[in-house]
Design a protein that fits this description.
This protein is an alpha/beta fold. It is built from 17 helices and 21 strands. Helix 6 packs across helix 11, helix 6 crosses helix 12 and helix 16 crosses helix 17. The longest helix has 19 residues.
């Protein structure tokens, strides 16, 4: 059963929300406001009977199924709204499909209920940075912006308010695009594609196809922004032409618009050389706009590429060049994305806990001066760790592996780099410190999910930061344990 986007009417409908995370609660609030009869099914989250969430649901007459998903409940409703991360192969969902129940995500509500034009950003890596940076640039130009989606505030929360923003800038994940229905961004960005979430998708092409869905509903007056240097995106663009006007960005080359008849390997609308960005938007290859990243927080990779995509989107959204420059200058990186935590006895410690896939680790290592001691591991997501071998051989002198994936990672990577294991992250920090020399770096860039040891990547990053700060305090007396003859150590905590 399909949902007729702009004609959707939720009043009086039996709507099941699957998942009780932040997005699920926002969806329940929105649906109640539309007069829907709401029920909830939560399969994994353990909630005590006296929890504030359950009490809030009961007060509003919302039935909540906990500890599993019943096929009977799923097949008995009119519409099912999936929260991000809910597996698509649940037996209860199969029963609902057989019963003709409409199954959508919150993005599928946008055609009927969202009155604000959308800039949507997806990709394996860099989504949060680019989404935030676009919002900052537009705000520097005096526009009112809602920034959210998979990042921060759920879309359903914005739908409940006055919707008075000039633009809604949304980070969208492949999980959300799987159930996006008629979702149509005015400007859609696909930053990159590399293997990820292969514990959810049957194979890499299926994951890549999910990313490409960001352009599926676009029309000729919309804009699709793609990375012309990404081989998977190049393949998808050749095999799946989009209706929107296509603009490409890449690392080098002349800047100019790309028509739908051209291949992404052709002229780019945006390019960069070192820290200088070049943007050219006019049909007739008018003057190139130049934006300098030197002296900003975006001067190093992978943020130079992120900035290139964000500037192109902001200019196509009508933001003036002077506001773009202000936004670039004022931007501050998001937490746990290749952030320098401290320098201890000449060893730099970087927190890149958000790097939960192989492509993100490759980008982080390429952005650092070697040699590097890499702390990696966590909950395996089905990726092929051998893709790391070339950059490991070039940049990494040793690895310290943690988490449930450490044996699999060691088996795949030990041919390139010596590896040890640690029982927890604090132990890993100390091992890495002993392996590193002054002038080298220790990088936490896990290539894995965090849920085997932590509540999420943010907690993992905070534990790493605490361990580094504790090491810095201990080492303030000198490298080598303060033994006789050792020179005084220096520990500078940056963040």
């Amino acid at each position: 059963m399909s949902i007729p986007g702009e004609r959707m009417d939720l009043e009086g409908k039996q709507v099941l929300v699957v998942g009780l995370g932040k997005s699920g609660i926002a969806a329940v609030r929105f649906l109640l406001g539309q007069g829907a009869k709401v029920v909830v099914s939560e399969g994994g989250r353990s909630l005590p009977p006296a929890s504030t969430t359950l009490r809030w649901l009961r007060e509003r007459g919302v039935y909540c199924e906990l500890g599993g998903h019943s096929s009977e409940l799923f097949a008995a409703v009119d519409i099912i709204i999936l929260c991000p991360g809910v597996p698509l192969d649940l037996p209860a969902l199969a029963a609902a499909r057989q019963a003709g129940v409409a199954i959508i995500g919150e993005l599928a509500l946008a055609p009927a209920y969202l009155r604000t034009p959308v800039i949507a950003v997806t990709g394996t890596n860099g989504k949060s940075t680019v989404t935030t940076l676009i919002g900052d640039i537009l705000q520097a130009g005096g526009q009112k912006v809602f920034v959210g989606g998979n990042l921060g505030t759920p879309l359903c929360e914005y739908l409940q308010g006055p919707q008075d923003a000039d633009w809604a800038v949304l980070e969208v994940s492949s999980f959300q695009l799987d159930s996006a229905g008629g979702f149509r961004p005015r400007i859609g960005l696909l930053l990159n594609i590399s293997p990820d979430h292969l514990d959810r998708y049957p194979d890499y092409p299926a994951y890549a196809a999910a990313k490409w869905r960001i352009f599926a509903q676009q029309q000729p007056n919309d804009v699709a922004i793609i990375n012309r240097d990404d081989p998977e995106i190049t393949r998808l663009a050749a095999a799946n032409p989009v209706a929107a006007r296509v603009f490409a960005f890449g690392g080098t080359g002349e800047a100019g618009p790309v028509g739908n008849e051209a291949q992404p390997a052709g002229p780019a609308a945006a390019s960069r050389t070192d820290s200088l960005l070049r943007i050219r938007l006019g049909k007739d290859f008018e003057a190139v706009e130049k934006y300098e990243l030197a002296g900003t927080e975006l001067a190093a990779e992978p943020n130079r590429q992120n900035a290139l995509a964000a500037v192109l989107a902001a200019r196509l959204a009508g933001c003036p060049p002077e506001a773009v420059s202000r936004g670039l200058e004022s931007f501050r990186p998001l937490p746990h994305r290749l952030a320098l935590v401290a320098e201890v006895d000449g060893v730099r410690f970087y927190d890149d806990s958000k790097a939960t896939n192989i492509g993100a680790v490759i980008s982080a290592l390429q952005g650092l001066r070697g040699p590097v001691v890499l702390i990696a591991g966590g909950l395996d997501k089905g990726g092929d760790y051998r893709l790391l071998l070339p950059v490991l051989r070039e940049k990494v002198k040793a690895m310290v592996l943690i988490g449930s994936a450490r044996a699999k990672m060691a088996a795949a990577l030990v041919e390139a780099v010596p590896a040890t294991s640690a029982g927890d992250l604090a132990e890993a920090v100390r091992q890495a410190y002993r392996l590193a020399q002054p002038g080298e770096a220790v990088l936490l860039s896990p290539a894995c999910a965090s849920f085997d040891m932590f509540s999420g990547y943010a907690q993992r990053g905070e534990v790493f930061r605490r361990a580094v700060r504790e090491l810095a305090r201990e080492r303030s007396g000198g490298r080598g344990g303060g033994e006789a003859g050792s020179s005084p150590g220096r520990a500078a905590v940056v963040a």
